[in-house]
Specification:
The chain is of the alpha+beta class. The chain has 5 domains: about 70 residues, Alpha-Beta Plaits (2-Layer Sandwich); about 130 residues, Gyrase A, domain 2; about 170 residues, Up-down Bundle (Multidrug efflux transporter AcrB transmembrane fold), CATH 1.20.1640; about 190 residues, Multidrug efflux transporter AcrB transmembrane domain (Multidrug efflux transporter AcrB transmembrane fold, Up-down Bundle), CATH 1.20.1640.10; about 80 residues, 2-Layer Sandwich (Alpha-Beta Plaits), CATH 3.30.70. The protein is about 60% helix and about 15% strand. The chain has 21 helices and 15 strands. The strands form 4 sheets. Strands 2-3-1-11 form a 4-stranded antiparallel β-sheet, with helices on one face. Strands 5-4-8-9 form a 4-stranded antiparallel β-sheet. The protein has a 4-stranded antiparallel β-sheet with strand order 13-14-12-15. Helix 8 packs antiparallel against helix 9 and helix 19 packs antiparallel against helix 21. It starts with a helix and ends with a helix.
Length: about 750
Amino acid sequence: MKKRNAVLTLLIVIVLTVAFAFMVVYGVGQDKVGAASEIKLGLDLAGGVSITYQAVGEEKPSNADMDDTIYKLQRRVEGYSTEAQVYKEGDDRISIEIPGVEDANAVLEELGKPGQLYFIAQYDADGNANYDRNTGALNKSIEELQADGSIVLEGTDVQSAAGGAYQDELKGVQYVVELTLTPDGTRKFADATTKAVTNHDSIMIYYDGAAVSIPTVQSAITNGQAQITGMEDADKAEQLASTIRIGGLKLALEELRSNVVGAQLGSEAISTSIKAGIIGFVIVVVFMIAVFLIPGLCASLALALYIVIVMVLLNLFSDAFGLTLTLPGIAGIILSIGMAVDANVITFARIREEIAAGKTVSTAIKLGYEKAFSAILDGNLTTLIAAVVLGILGTGSIRGFAITLGIGIVVSMFTALVVTKKLLNSFYDLGLKDEKFYGKAKQIKNIDFLGKRKVFIGISIAAIVAGFIAMGVNAGAGKHALNLSLEFLGGTSTNVTFNEDMSVSDIDAKVVPIIEEITGDGNVQVQKVAGSNEVIFKTRTLSAEERTEFSDKMVENFSVEAEKITAETISSTISSEMSRSAVIAVIIATACMLLYIWFRFSDVKFGFGSVIALVHDVLVVLAFYAFSRVSVGNTFIACMLTIVGYSINATIVIYDRIREVLRDTQFNTMSLEDKVNMCVNQTLTRSIFTSLTTFIMVAVLYVLGVSSIREFALPLMVGIICGTYSSICLASALWYIFKTRLVKNK
């Protein structure tokens, strides 16, 4: 009976893996549900639509008006994708880039033309009609309406607008538009609606030269919350809300150009990432089987199932929640793969310890999972809490990272705690009961980590101080402390129209190296305009001499006509609001992790130790950025978040072992220092093996990736090494110091 169940379990896992793999490759049905090719990719990986607007008017728009317009447009286009970018180009242009779409005209039609929005009273002060209520035709010009005070509100008085619905007992579902006004708008609208409600007059919403709605005033609205009723359906309600939102811009804009553009990281980014992922996975599988034997084989099968399930879920989330997969999202997947391997390594190490203690293989498997559960649960839940907070509070790439990480953590816990365990028991029931198939923990030399704590702490302080010195030297030399890329500082966008339709691979191989030589920077974004010979190159800000050299090189090497090369200064794509929300999200996420560790370990000193180790890793990686001058761009945020998640998970595994030993009465005769040293040594193999498997995945990505991918992978490798070091050498020492110092003071 057991053998039959074991065979059935193996067949189920294999069939599910093959079925999900089929979905990932081919999809199901005409819509290709589940296919990896249907996952929406970001501008960095696949490109999208680029639209450029120009401010209308004789006077040059102020920086304040441009910034306000950019911010409101950013909020508007996030409905298409969380990865949409809005930035300033030149003095009076605004560019919008929306990933995952290929029809610029459809986007323009839905987005609307940013123009002026007015709420116009039906009658002026003398009782004359301002418009025809049936047709919406104006009886006066906008200037005349402004002069006699008939314009109740302008678009800037509307803080937000959203389509909605409610259930009416008599009429059924009613579709509405909910408006929230600014404080000034609230005051003006209260006055206007109080006057209009007496005779049930209307207030027309007039946008871009035409009436879009003429609702009747039913009651005086004094709280700044207005509702437009009578919408035909949800689409009409959302369309009107969209019009009101975009009409709230301070500037009137007109479309200058719209294009479908290619991936910012080049066409090779996806193919090399996939190739690196496959090679890295194969190496990890070989490593796991070679080190852990039958358990390693079970973990590899579960890991294969994990990967295909994650890909299917990414497809579903892409459709349901507008998830757009970018390089930071891939970082979240890499981290979750590392955590999936980690959960298995923790368990297998426990099983080997039980076998070494004289337990049978069957008992060792049972006890191994029981004893490993708390470490796996706490490590994954702590990281999941961070992912949830970042997903709620973060924007753009941070939210994408959080979603992919959250999906990965949930699936990895399922595959590690359920699938791998079922497979392991199945192989045992099939007759593989000899302990040689599972391994036995070997007696290792007990390293005195705590005895060397002053050395470790000194090394860490020296590395952090050196990083701050390097940043100071860089700043003193007239450079930025860190090599901030165009995402943070803005840069130069150069449009080049070649004489032939060059392929993206040719551009990457022939043109980009020339540009990198001019800029001295590997962060060059390339976007090919579909259906033309035009290519957009985004670089750090170029001086007049560098722009001239750029132009000369294009003419000299590719016979480009000089007049077909244009350059504009562009603003940063990571706005101050986005940076601020990122910092706030990380701080709150860290605080939530601290509270969770405090609650689970019943000792706040564990929480402080883990957070300090986490901050240490971030600062050391910052020092690496300062010394190496690797570009600090959009992937920098993802890199730091990955390191935070990795560091906290590795530290919790050691803390879990310390907590277990402190509760076990058989170790009461040992000193606290010996207990801590023993715990670090017992988890040493796990720390090294988990770090090695994750490092392998990223290292392959570094070796095979294009220059922009390597600039992401290199700091990540440094972070993995640093996270391993801090978990082994610092985290336990910090807890021990807090524990003994506080006891002495008491």
